[in-house]
Specification:
Elements: H1 9-20, E1 29-33, H2 37-43, E2 63-71, E3 80-87, E4 93-98, H3 109-122, H4 131-148, H5 157-165
Parallel strand pairs: 1-4
Antiparallel strand pairs: 2-3, 3-4
Helix pairs in contact: 3-4
Length: 195
């Protein structure tokens, strides 16, 4: 006979915290920052990140530093440290990320879009990139096309432009996190001078 499932104190604590702070859903908060990767690599954790003015979820202006998280990007051999901030009001964690990359992708936006354009126009893959990665991006494009334009499903440059103008990450397979901006009710772009 199997042992009955028992909640430990950590599980109960997490559930209590979610109810206490009214966290009904997990929201991924990524803030795209106008930074270049090379100076970021050279400075490491000493890079002068610009602090967002307000929380993009609740509009609160109490954002505290919440450490760093490491990410890999194409063309750079090691880890790159990205700054995180935590909102005191709603307890959400924001990760600052270079605006040249979509979340959950190591390749730049430009490379992904060029690969999709080449496949749509010339029906071939870019020779200098991995075929498997390009197939993954193309299948993600077809997934987003089926969701956002289910009537025709035409693989054309016009549909690619439509999805990009609707702020959709065209190469993602996710149906939950497919928008470039999540809950963008507040202007949270960092301003120069706020460090």
């Amino acid at each position: 006979m199997a042992a009955p499932f028992r909640h430990n104190r950590w599980c109960r604590c997490f559930v209590d915290i979610k109810h206490r702070y009214n966290c009904t859903s997990d929201v991924l908060l990524i803030i795209l920052s106008p930074i270049e990767i090379k100076p970021l690599i050279l400075a490491g954790k000493d890079h002068p990140w610009l602090r967002p003015d307000v929380c993009s979820h609740c509009g609160g202006n109490h954002l505290w530093g919440h450490g760093y998280t490491s990410r890999y990007f194409d063309g750079y051999p090691g880890l790159i440290w990205l700054k995180r901030y935590r909102c005191v009001d709603c307890h959400r964690v924001h990760t600052l990320r270079p605006e040249s990359h979509w979340r959950r992708f190591q390749a730049t936006i430009t490379i992904i879009i060029e690969s999709l354009k080449t496949k749509i126009l010339e029906d071939r893959w870019v020779p200098s990139l991995s075929r498997q990665r390009q197939q993954y991006w193309f299948r993600g494009f077809r997934t987003q096309l089926k969701v956002n334009h289910p009537s025709d499903g035409m693989l054309t440059l016009e549909r690619l432009r439509d999805l990009l103008s609707e702020k959709v990450i065209v190469a993602t397979h996710s149906l939950n996190w497919f928008q470039m901006l999540v809950r963008s009710t507040y202007d949270c772009v960092p301003k120069a001078g706020h460090v």
